[in-house]
Amino acid sequence: MTRRPKHPDKDIERLLCALESAGWDVEKGRKYFKALCPCGTHQKWVHLTPSSSSYLKNLTGWLRRNTCWKEGEP
Q: What share of the chain is helix, strand, coil (3-state, %, to 5)?
């Protein structure tokens, strides 16, 4: 198993690690990371260069509202 490269933003990297520990697959694309839910229904692209200062907050909110991932659950 090869380890994916780290996200340049430490807070987003922490979120990606939390997703991986919850069973999500995180793959590196050219300009983004692709997070795939273990249920096979949900996926989310995480940009390498966040578009705004509230990108992490919006990303976390989207995951909480639209997927089976619950923050803080391994």
A: 30, 20, 50
